[in-house]
Task: inverse folding
């Protein structure tokens, strides 16, 4: 008998076909919440779960007694209770690598767009305000040759740093739990203390996972340490930043600008001032959102769940301990 999978969001017909050849699939393309009764009912029978952006709670897992594996269509897994999954011997898989370059492209777009005021000036021309050559009040600031401070030099952080160092001749400073000698040699990057990075960088780019330690890593004190000419970029998770403190720093000119792909609450509440601020470029969490990369992510999730439910090691496994427990 075929094992049963519950899938939600972001799968194409081709991925669904692949899954259906191997498993019985219940697909919820427009799932709005984990409280959907039909979804809950299907989960009660499911061996596998595939999808993106759904808060998985222990209570939800209580209703999924046969669950063996979850394949998230994301690299981040902050909305999964990893320890709880491991305790229940449920494998958690994610999609690293396939989205690295695309997410770094998004990060660099934000660096360029904020520095050169791309959105503000595009709006200027749309309003019909281009009557004569623009004045100094609308000039931007250079990117090339500046100092890029990478907070986190994992896969995505390294790809942003590579763009900066090799493409734009930027000096790279970084913080990371461990030194990265190969990247230091390749990019001339230098590891430093967080405070030194904040005080010296022209661009501070956040690329860390959301954990208890990184929650509100950026608050009033950190923005105060940054240069008044500094530009803040966040392609990680919104909760790494105390958003009220960021808004205050942008309003008072404590920092120059911000490029944000992620927010404390997503979708961003309609009353947030951020997208309306002239010195902010706000994007709706599009880090990995290209046709090519979202397809590759979905394929990785399909491959992960297929391997996991066949008793083989998935390509990208978050909780190694659950795999070992299942083997033992
Ligand atoms: C996801 C992301 O699409 O992979 C990640 O961690 O941030 C995005 O690429 C998003 O998180 C959906 O869950």
Result:
């Amino acid at each position: 008998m075929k094992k049963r999978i519950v899938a939600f969001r972001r799968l194409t017909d081709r991925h669904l076909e692949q899954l259906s050849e191997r498993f019985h699939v219940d697909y919820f393309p427009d799932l709005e919440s984990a409280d959907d009764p039909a979804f809950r009912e299907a989960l009660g029978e499911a061996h596998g779960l595939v999808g993106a952006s759904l808060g998985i709670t222990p209570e939800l897992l209580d209703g999924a007694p046969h669950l063996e594996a979850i394949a998230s269509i994301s690299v981040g897994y902050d909305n999964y209770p990893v320890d709880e999954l491991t305790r229940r011997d449920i494998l958690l898989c994610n999609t690293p690598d396939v989205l690295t370059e695309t997410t770094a492209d998004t990060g660099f777009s934000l660096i360029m767009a904020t520095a050169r005021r791309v959105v503000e000036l595009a709006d200027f021309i749309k309003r019909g305000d281009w009557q004569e050559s623009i004045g100094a009040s609308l000039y931007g600031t250079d990117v090339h040759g500046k100092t890029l401070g990478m907070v986190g030099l994992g896969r995505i952080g390294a790809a942003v740093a590579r763009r900066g160092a090799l493409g734009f001749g930027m000096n790279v400073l970084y913080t990371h739990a461990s030194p990265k000698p190969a990247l230091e040699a390749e990019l001339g990057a230098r590891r430093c203390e967080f405070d030194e990075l904040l005080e010296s960088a022209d661009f501070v780019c956040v690329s860390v996972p959301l954990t208890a330690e990184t929650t509100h890593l950026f608050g009033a004190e950190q923005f105060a340490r940054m240069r008044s000419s500094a530009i803040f970029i966040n392609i990680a998770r919104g909760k790494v930043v105390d958003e009220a403190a960021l808004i205050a720093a942008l309003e008072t000119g404590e920092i120059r600008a911000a490029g944000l792909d992620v927010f404390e609450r997503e979708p961003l509440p309609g009353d947030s001032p951020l997208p309306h601020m002239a010195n902010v470029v706000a994007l709706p969490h599009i880090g990995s959102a290209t046709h090519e990369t979202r397809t590759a992510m979905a394929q990785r999730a399909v491959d992960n769940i297929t391997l996991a439910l066949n008793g083989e090691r998935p390509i990208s496994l978050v909780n190694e301990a659950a795999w070992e427990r299942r083997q033992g």
Observations:
- Residues 52-53, 74-76, 99, 287-288 surround 2-keto-D-gluconic acid (CB under 6 Å).
- Residues 291-309 form the longest helix (19 residues).
- DSSP finds 13 helices and twelve strands in the chain.
- The chain has two domains: 4-98+291-327, 100-282.
